[in-house]
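TICKET: design request
STATUS: open
ATTACHED STRUCTURE:
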């Protein structure tokens, strides 16, 4: 999603002094910037935290870095911020090198905003002063006006004079968001910004944050462990594993066309069944499935999504028997012994509740959506 950096919004919606707008004002916009990593490597002694990472983020784009603990997400963010230096490679903001062999621009000169997991507010400062903290360059009255306006935007203007300790976790998080956004950084870097929140609060904060990012047109990089969060927030997701980007794309790209079994596993629960490829196909109980690029005799892993398996009445599809069922609310998790498969298939199905243990069923799968990966790469 590309937005023009010239598309800025003048502060025409500033209310008259002493008045409060009836509805939250829209946040004023910033100049979005591009952010690029070129062949970035970061070593800590023998640990290769980032291995040849290249990623270009367009102005106004929201990119999530997704991957398991220790894969290098935070290190990449810290390098973008200027808190860490790359061992080699370059970082560019708006095509200007900010870290590289010949140049290092300190964090305060990069026009980046940071919001970290612990988002610590200053306990001795009021909420408004916490938010105005990053606006030291502005005259005090103006900084306060900007901070109040941002607090209104996140629904907390009425707490401007309170101190952080009386705020709930969600309110503190909103203040941290306001504090990060109020200087209108060209690039906003967020490290697991919603991790401390309960599920409902997380949903509403995600919506709020996304709305604010869209309004301010900031370029954003958000670190998360949660695939669903990445899918909700990101224009593009970069999946990291052991310091490398294994795939970058939209949520749909990654879900429909995962480059590796590792990526497929992030986005859905799958049954994994090993076969030997012959003449570019594998022979499964549901018929033959293309296994492109996998040599004769090599192992291929068939991936069948647990939600992609349909449970029908006996007589349709392949015969099966329900071996185990677990109620999970909207869906049931079933284990089904299916003719032709050595191990039971796991199925997540809304029809599960009407299929008790022991019942005979029919099993259907849309094999055009089956996934096939080389076996060796993952072992
Ligand atoms: P998490 O999701 O748990 O925060 P992450 O994906 O953000 O993990 P990083 O914090 O970037 O991972 O760490 C990547 C690797 O670099 C890890 O192996 C980590 O132990 C190592 N590492 C990070 N910072 C340092 C450091 N200052 N000194 C030594 N090793 C470090």
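STATUS: resolved
RESOLUTION: sequence designed for all positions
ATTACHED SEQUENCE:
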């Amino acid at each position: 999603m590309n937005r023009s950096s010239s598309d800025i919004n003048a502060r025409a919606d500033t209310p008259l002094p002493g008045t409060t707008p009836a509805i939250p004002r829209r946040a004023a916009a910033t100049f979005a910037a591009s952010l690029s990593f070129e062949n970035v490597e970061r070593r800590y002694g023998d640990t290769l935290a980032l291995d040849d990472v290249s990623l270009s983020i367009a102005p106004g784009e929201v990119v999530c870095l997704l991957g398991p603990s220790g894969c290098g997400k935070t290190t990449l963010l810290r390098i973008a911020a200027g808190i860490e230096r790359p061992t080699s490679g370059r970082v560019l903001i708006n095509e200007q090198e900010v870290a590289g062999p010949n140049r290092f621009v300190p964090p305060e000169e990069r026009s980046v905003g940071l919001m970290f997991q612990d988002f610590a507010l200053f306990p001795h400062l009021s909420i408004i002063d916490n938010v105005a903290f990053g606006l030291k360059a502005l005259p005090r009255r103006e900084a306060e006006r900007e901070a109040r306006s941002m607090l209104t935007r996140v629904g907390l203007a009425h707490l401007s004079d309170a101190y952080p300790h009386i705020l709930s976790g969600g309110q503190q998080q909103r203040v941290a968001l306001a504090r990060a956004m109020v200087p209108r950084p060209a690039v906003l870097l967020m490290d697991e910004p919603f991790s401390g929140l309960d599920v409902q609060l997380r949903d509403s904060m995600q919506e709020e944050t996304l709305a604010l990012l869209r309004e301010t047109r900031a370029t954003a990089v958000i670190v998360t462990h949660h695939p669903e969060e990445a899918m909700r927030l990101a224009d593009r997701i970069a999946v990291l594993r052991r310091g490398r980007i294994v795939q970058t794309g939209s949520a749909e790209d990654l879900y429909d066309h995962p480059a590796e079994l590792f990526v497929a596993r992030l986005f859905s629960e799958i049954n994994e069944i090993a076969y030997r490829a012959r003449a570019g196909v594998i022979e499964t109980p549901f018929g033959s499935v293309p296994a492109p690029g996998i040599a004769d005799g090599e192992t291929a892993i068939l991936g069948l999504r647990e939600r992609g398996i349909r449970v029908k009445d006996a007589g349709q599809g392949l015969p099966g028997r329900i071996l185990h069922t677990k109620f999970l609310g909207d869906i049931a998790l079933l284990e089904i012994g299916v003719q032709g498969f050595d191990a039971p298939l796991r199925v997540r199905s809304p029809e599960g509740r009407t299929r008790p243990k022991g019942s005979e069923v029919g099993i259907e799968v849309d094999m055009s959506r089956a996934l096939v990966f080389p076996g060796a790469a993952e072992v």
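CLOSING REMARK: Residues 1-26 have pLDDT under 50 and may be disordered. The CA atoms of residues 1 and 228 lie 19 Å apart.
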